[in-house]
Amino acid sequence: MNGTMGSSGINGRHQPSNSPILVLEPVNDTFALKSLELPEHAKVKIGRQTGVATAPHPSNGYFDSKVLSRVHAEVWSEGGKVYIRDLKSSNGTFLNGRRLCPENTESEPFELNQNDSLEFGIDIMDENGALLHEKVSCKIYISRMSYPTPGSSPQDSHAKIKPPSPVASGVNSIKSNSVSIQGSQSENIDLIITRLQSELTRSQETYADLGFLKHSLGELEKVMIVKGGEIGNKNNNNLANTNGQATSLTDPPINYMELQNQREKEHAAEISRLLKNFEDAKVQWEIQRTRELRSLQEENETLRRNQEKANEALNQAASKMDFTTTRINAMIQEHKQELETVRREHEAAIANLESKHKDDINRLVIEADAEQEGLADKHKRELAEAVALARSSKSEDSLTLEAELESLKEETQILREARDAQIRRAEALVEENRELLQQLDDIKTELRSVQQMMKSNTGDLTSLTPTLHAATGESEGSLRPRGGSKSAVSGTSAGIEHGLSEGDSRPTFSWSQFVFPIARKNDARLAQKVLLMSALRFPNLPPSEPQGSDLLKQERAKTTFRVQELSTFLYGEEVLERQERLMSLIEKIPAFDKSDRYFLGRTERFAHALRKDHELVKLGKKHGFTNDEYTHANALIDEPGPLGLHRGMFLPTLASQGTEEQIEKFLKPAERYEIIGCYAQTELGHGSNVQGIETTATYIPETDEFEIHTPYLTATKWWIGGLGKAANHAVVMARLITAGKDHGPHPFCVPIRSMEDHTLLPGVMAGDIGPKFGYNTTDNGCMWFDHYRVPRISLLAKFSSIKPGSGEYIKPPNAKLSYGTMVLIRASLVGAARQGLAKAVTIATRYSVVRRQFVDHDAPKKLGSHIVETSVIDYSMQQYRLFPLIAASYAFFLTSKEMMRLYYLNMKNMATGDFSLLADVHASSSGLKSLTTTMAAAGIEECRRACGGHGFSSFSGLPLMLQDYAPNVTWEGDNYILTQQTGRHLFKTYRELVAKRNSGRWNSSHVNNRTLAYLNTYLDNPTLKCPATTPSHFHNPELQLAAFGHRAAFLIAQAVHAIDVEKRTWNSMLVDIYNVSVAHCQFILVQNFILGIRGELPQPDGHIDIARTLSQGSKEVLADLSDLFAMHTIHKEPGEFLACGYLDAKHVSLLGKAVMELMETRIRPNAVGLVDAFAFPDYLLNSAIGAYDGRVYERYVEMATREPLNRTEVVEGYEEYIKPFTNPNNVKGHLMKSRL
Hints:
Its EC number is 1.3.3.6. The protein is an alpha+beta fold.
C-alpha cells in the first residue's frame, strides 16, 4: 500500500490514526457496506473491478458494476474535510442528484457531508426498457477513527471508533414508533436488517483491529519488562515531580483484554436490542396485515352484492333491447324496400344515359362517314372529268390543267385529313363517353356508400328518417349529405350535375356541393379542369364573427402611408409592372398549377418540377424573356427544379471564367438549352474546404487532353443540383496536375451524358442521392470518374491555362479573380433571404390578425355590444416575435440592393485591373450571406411557430417554405466557416490601420470605406460611452451607428490582441471570430437601412434614388422600422454592447421600454400595410392562412377536401388491417350497433 494510505510505526506495525472514515451505505443492494479510511491528502480511487487486484472489498473503493468506469472518481481528506472528484467517467458521478461534470471531463472537487446521497453511473436499459445494469447508489456517513490510548476509558474509545452511523437513530426510531407502525412496517424491517448488517461488518472489522492492537501491545510490554531496569535507573531523576514525588514504571498496566471484552459485550447488547425491536416490529406488521385482509374481504363482499344487482339490471335492459331490436328490424326491411326502389330507378336512368350517348356517337360516326364518302366521290368525278379534258385537249392550256390537277390532289389530301380529323373526333367522343361511364360508375359507388351509411345508422331513427325522405324525394327533391343538412359546402363555383330531365319527378343528385377542381392533362396542348368527389364534406357555415376579411380591411384602413408607394420604393415600377404581366401568363398554364403541390410524393413532385422547367423555358422563348424576367417568373412559381443550377451556377461560371472560344462552344448552346449543365464542386468528403477536394485532372501532353479521375471514395462528387437525372454537362472542380505538379482546384466543362439518348458516357457514373430534408424537387446527384479523358478546351481558361504540348501552367494575374462568381452567388443569397423571410412574415402577420384567442380582460374587444376574443396580433409577445422580422426583411431589401451594386461595380473595376474593392466586397458578402440566411431560416421557423397549430400544417405554406429554404445556410459556404473569411479581412484591416496610425502616416482623409471609418473612430476614443438618458434618445440614428460600430471595433481589437499578443491559436478563437463577423455585418445592415431611407446610398449608373421622393408618411414608417431593427438587435443581444463599455445596465432597461413603445404605438397600426407592401400575390404564397382576403378557415377546409385520402370514406386497407381487429366476424347491422 502507498505510504500515503496509512502510517507505519516500529517494524511497520499499524499506528493510531485520526483520519476520517467515509462510510458508503448501499441503498439499492448493489454492493456491501464500505468503510474507507482517508488519511490526509491520500486519494482513494473509486472504480470498476478489472482484475484480482481491484476485487471489491469493504475497505476499498472498487465495485462489481458495469456502469462505472475503470477509474471513475477519487475521494480524499484535506483539513478535516472529505472531498470527491469525477475522473472523466462516461456515465457520471451524481452528488445529491446533480452530475458533477459533463461526460469525459474532470470535475472540480466537491465536499462530502453527512447524509449526502452519492450515485456512480446511471441505470442502463435494454431496447425493451428492461433494466440491464443498475447504478451504484449509497448514503454518505463520515466518522473519525481513533485507536484507544493510555488513560482513556473503554466508553470513550468505543465512542470514537464507532461512526455516527444511522444504526442508533434507526433503533431509536423503531423504539419510538413501535406502537403505531401504520404502513411503514416493511420499510422499518428493511432498515433494521440493513443496520444489523452494517453493524455486524463494523464489529468484524473492529475485532480484527483490536486483535492486531493486542499483539502489538504484547510485543511492546515484553520490551518494556526487559529494558525496565535500565530505563528506570537512567530516568530516575527525571521522573521526580515538583512535590518531590516520583512516577514508577511499576504502575499497573492498562488491561487491553478487559477493554476488548467490554466493547464486545456492548456490541452484543446492542445487537440484542436491535433483534428485539425487529421482533416487535414483525409482530406489529402481522397484526396490521391481518386487519387489512379483513377489510379487503368486507369490500369484496360488498362488490359481489353490487355485481348481482347490476346483473339483474342488465337482464332487464336486455329484455327491453330485444323488443326494440324486433321493431327496428321490421323498420329496416321497410327501408330496404324503399332503397331498392330508388336503386332500380337510378339504374334505369343510368342505362338511358348510356344508350343515349352510344346512339349519339354512332350517329356522328355514320354522318361523318357518309359526308366523307360523298365528298370523296364528288372529287373523284371532278378529277376524272379534269383528266379526260386534259387528255382530249392538246391546247396551250395543258400546263394550266396540270396545275389545277395538282391543286385538286392537294384539296383531296386536305379532305382526307378532314375525314381523319372527324374520325379522331369520333374517337374523342368515344373516350369522353368512357369517362362519362366512369363517372356513372362513381355515382353507383356513391349510391352504395349512401346505402351502407343508412344501414349503419338505423339505430338512430331521428337522423335516419330525414335521410330516407331526401332519398325518396319527399322533402326538397335532392339527395342531402349525411345528417340531413339542407346545405353543403361547394368545393368550387363550377358544379356539374348528373340527373334526369327537369320534368322528371324522381330525385336528382347535385354533386356540385361535394366536388373540387384539379388540373388534369388531356393532351400535349390542353389541360382541362375535371371534378372529383371528396368523401369529406363540410357544412356551408360561415366562421364566427368578426370575419377575417373584415378584420384585414379594418387593419388596412389604419395604415398611415400609401402601400403602393412603399412597394415602388422596394422594387421600382418596372418590377411591379413586370410581375403583373408575368402573373397573367403563368396562371393560365397548367404546368404551373400549385393546387396539388402539398399532396404529392417526391417522385411525383420531381416529375412536376421537370415539366415546370420545360414549360418555363418554352414560355421564355415564346415571349422573349430577358434574364430578369426569367428569374422573376421562376420566383413566382417558387418550386426548385432540375434546371435551377443550370441557370444559377452553370451559366454564370461559363460566362465569368470562359474564353471567347469557350463561350461560343459551351455558353451559347447552354443558353439555348442545347446543353444542360450543373456545377460539380462539393464532394462526399469535402464541402466548405474547396482547397481539399480530391478529384484530379491530369494533363496528358501526348494527346493534349486532361484525364479526370476519382481516386478515393471521398472524392465522389455529391450534392450536385441537377446532376442526378437532368444534366448532360457539368462544370467539374478538379485539381489541375501538370508535369507532376498540383496547381489546386480549377473548373472544367465536361460532358457526362450522351446528347443522343441521355445515357451516361463511358468513364462516368452518376445518379440521384435520394430524399432530403427539403428541396426534393431538385435531383441532387453524385458522380465519379474512371480515368475519363476530355480535350484541353474543357479547362475554363479565362484566368489560368495550360500551354498545349508542353503542359506549362499559366497563372492568373490575380489569385482571387475567380471570386467574382462567388460574390455574385452570395450577394444573390442575401436577396433570397429577404424574399424568404418576407413571405413567411406576411403569412404570419395576416393570420395573426384573423386568429382570435382568449379575451384581454384589461382591454376587451367588442363587436357591437358583445365582447369577442382578442386578435393574436394585439398581444405584445406576438408583436415582439413578428414585428422585428418585418423590420429585418426591409433591412435585407436595402442591403441586397447595395451588395448587387457593389458586385457590378467591382466587376467593372476588375475589368480595368482595379482590384481595390474585391477583398472588402468578398469579405462582406461572405459575412452577410452567413448572417442573413441564418436570420431568415430562424425567422421562417419563428413565423411557423407564431401561427400555432395551423402553422404546422402544410396548407399554411410555412413548412415547405422552411424545408426548401433550409439549404441556404449550408450551400455556397457553411455559415460558420464563411465567417472566418470575414474575420481574416477585418483583422488584416485593423492591423494595417494601427500600423499606419503608429507610423504617423495616417489622417482621416484616408478613410475610404465603412470598416476603416468605425475602426478609426474606435481607436480615437476606445472608451466612448452612450449619452442616452431617456428611451427616446435611442431613436437617434447616429447613436445607433455609434453603438454598432464601437462594439464591432472592440471585438476586432480584442481578437487581434488575443491572436498577436496572447498567442491564441486560430482554432481556439473560432467563436470570437464568428462574433466579430456577426457584429460587422449587423453594422452594415443598420448603416444601409439608415442611409437607404435617407436617400444617401449610392445608386447604379442611371438610377434615381426613389427614397428622396417618398411622402412623409412613408419616410416615417421606414424610420420606425429602421429604429426597431437597430434597437431590437441590441436589446436581444446586449452582452457585447455591455462588454465593450458603450452601454450599461441602465441603458438596456431604457432600450427595452423604447422597443415596446415603438411596436405598440407606431408599428402595430401599420403592420398589415407593411407586409402588403411586399406585393406578394396569393399565387406565390400558396397559403390557406396567409391570403390577402383573410378567408383563412374557408380556404383551410377547402384544401382539406382535396387530400387524396379523403376521396374515399373508407380507407384503402380497411379490410386487411383494421376490420380484423374491429369486426373480425363480419357482424352486420344492429348486432354491431348493440355491441356499442
